[in-house]
User: Fold these one by one.
Assistant:
Number 1:
Amino acid sequence: SAKKLGRNTFQFYQPEMNDEAQERLRIESALRNALERNEFVLHYQPQVDLESGAIVGMEALLRWQHPELGMVPPARFIGLAEETGLIVPIGAWVLRTACLQARALQDAGFSGLRMAVNLSARQFAQPELVSTIAAVLEETGLPPAALELELTESLFMHDVAQGVHLLHELKSLGVALSIDDFGTGYSSLSYLRNFPIDVLKIDRSFVNDIATDADDAAIVVSVIALAHNLGLRVIAEGVESEEQLEFLRRHGCNEIQGYYFSRPVEAGAFQQMLQDGKQLVCGGPRRLRA
Ligand code: C2E
Ligand code: MG
Ligand code: MG
Ligand code: MG
């Protein structure tokens, strides 16, 4: 028994851990083959401008449709893809597919839309990142300004100077840069001053209770003011209700993304939304112009 092994020894065998380890192994080996087997798909979630109500962009979100495991959400495999380095080829596929899709939408007459793509820490640490992105832009013919790269605060934890250098290189391609999940990571306000970023995305966890929690409301209002004072655009993530939407509109948030307007959808459904001219419907006349 564990007791016999002494006070400071942990018992190793735990059935749940074993299951978890096996599940991990299973996912890892399946992940290795997922690209060649064409099991990945991107869904697109609209980003809507709060002044015009129009769709102005979209975020590409990775989905893994495994024949036996079913639909595996990113939360269950992105971490593993990071650890194994598989995120590098997967991330390159995401970039290329998203840029092709953005280009196809432009060719269909929907120009001026931005395509946001998530970058992982591992990709960010790749020396080839900038040339990969340049090659994808060249190959797809997508104007660089139509591509927005979403980065998280954790990417800069290790080497801030190197991170800043890389951001400048990325900016010189002409793409836009945003900070995703803003406020949840290692947050230092000094980087907002030094980093050539264009957009802050307020994390869903702050948006969730803005209508009822005074602290969260205060944080969101402050982040919007901070972004605007620094000349950045601000997007609120995870907007699910009219109350949240109205709060954000009242406080001058530029754009929203969330289930209230639309869940992430397949490419065809996204294009259909554009064709239908789907817009954000506002609850009554706009306050400031009444
Ligand atoms: P994220 O980049 O912050 O993406 C937003 C997540 O919030 C998405 O989850 C989206 O479906 C979800 N979401 C959007 N609106 C709402 C809402 O109103 N309510 C709620 N409850 N959720 C909402 P998803 O697609 O499961 O992705 C989770 C995370 O996985 C992403 O968070 C991102 O960090 C990562 N991820 C997704 N695709 C990629 C990718 O291509 N590459 C990398 N490196 N990471 C990715
Ligand atoms: Mg994101
Ligand atoms: Mg986010
Ligand atoms: Mg709170």
Number 2:
Amino acid sequence: EKGGFDSFMEKEIHDQPDAVGQTLLGRSDVDGNLILDELRIDETILRSVDKIVVLACGTSAYAGQVAKYAIEHWCRIPTEVELSHEFRYRDPIVNEKTLVVAISQSGETMDTLMAVRYAREQGAKVVAICNTNGSTIPRESDAVLYTHAGPEIAVASTKAFLAQITAAYLLGLYLAQLRGNKYRDEIADVLADLSTIPAKIQAVLDDADKIKQLGADMANAKSVLFLGRHVGFPVAMEGALKLKELAYIHAEGFAAGELKHGPIALIEEGQPVVVVMPSPSARDSLHAKVVSNVQEIRARGAVTIVIAEAGDTTVEAYSEHVFYVPETPTLLAPLLTTVPLQIFALALASAKGYDVDQPRNLAKSVTVE
Ligand code: F6R
């Protein structure tokens, strides 16, 4: 049942080309139009939405944070991402014009369920993005967009995360299509780019020996920091969460731009720092800015582990370790850059001899508030 792998987690990491592929399947036509029949919310309501609130916990919330960059860009609808358990305790502004997107792999997370109930009481429409057929959150939502990642057994979420990003992107593209804004023309291109993602994930998996080895070599690390910018920021936080959960060491994700506002004080000789490097083609010279962050932390003794885009050889001069992922548009990069971070955490935790499928103190479904 583990498909020849040592753990469910490893199997599920390798299921990811399929998880993304299945989630895309049958949801667009050959002309690049989205077909989301399951989105049974009146189109006039979807057209009048003036705010999107994404509610989720943990890894699913990081998927929401990634999606925010894409949804705001394509739809020009203000999008907030909030942890479900914070949401209803602060008198949030939600009404009939709010579209809530509840992201949950299990569909049973009590915090998210309670937030969904609260949002609906305020008149909001709720779309669930969920991996578990017929679970509670989809049943209590107005509509559901299922991720088709297949059952996720390992406690730490991997393939569901990539499938959630994929589904949230489809939702964003669908809203852009419906609302006919100026980004309408991009939809077919983005769909074409998305269709190349499964093969690119496979390429990352096929090339994973080096990052596996590095994870194993770092089994004695006491703390690992993760830096990212733009969509790479939530990816950095997800990479850190995987390491906390699986390897029980301190790990923290930062926005690279925030470094000089505090976290750089943490850097001392030998501190491992994983950097999710923006593509050299990213807007607003983000790449150059992160390269300069890497130089700053290296000058203070950090050991840098850089996830970069293929062809970006400039980073080699500034990094102890570089891992390349295939070239892809910036908004889709998280579907690739996350994968080496999952493999790194898995390898490090395995080298420590920990049970990666059942980390201590954690449950797969958190059904209490
Ligand atoms: C992390 C992890 C958790 C879940 C969170 C939400 O690897 O698995 O952070 O992502 O508990 O769970 P769902 O998505 O089932 O609502």
